[in-house]
Amino acid sequence: xxxxxxxxxxxxxxxxxxxxxxxxxxxxxxxxxxxxxxxxxxxxxxxxxxxxxxxxxxxxxxxxxxxxxxxxxxxxxxxxxxxxxxxxxxxxxxxxxxxxxxxxxxxxxxxxxxxxxxxxxxxxxxxxxxxxxxxxxxxxxxxxxxxxxxxxxxxxxxxxxxxxxxxxxxxxxxxxxxxxxxxxxxxxxxxxxxxxxxxxxxxxxxxxxxxxxxxxxxxxxxxx
Length: 224
Prior knowledge:
Number of helices: 10
Oligomer: single chain
Shape: globular
Helix content: over 70%
Distance between the termini: 55 Å
Order of helices and strands: HHHHHHHHEEHH
CATH class: Mainly Alpha
Largest sheet: 2 strands, antiparallel
């Protein structure tokens, strides 16, 4: 989209290089602090519209750094995975575009929480990063449980199923959060999908025309 390209150029000088490194490091720090101060510490970081209105404005940003797990082993794996995905997307897209993708996704999460009045977390935002990576690198292999080699496209199928399941069966807040995360994904990959549909339509039309010509040729041959 042209307006996205223009926005990229405008924010280029303000874009944060190696953004995912800082997010991963701060998430790791929050995890360590939560081990010492417990769940009460984490509860002060979630995006909560009601508490923000009471003056706890830091929650607008700190919810991004909520750890995805309370398991040390899982958090190490998850943060490494986030860093790998984020770093690769930044290399592929460039720093401004990656910043846009992440911060528009974060803003969408904020909007979803405000609309539903619910507590916001970065879960769906991070899952949308995974979808972006899998779309660009479908054949990239990761070691599931550090043992089983699996291509990203197959993990993406599970991700898509999770989004669909959430939208169908989740609470209103979960549905809205999932929808806005997917909207961010489609916003950046709209061109890819429209080109795919055009190629599919063109191929179908070509095949239809070819079959029609074959039938016409056979009909004329029979008449002769």
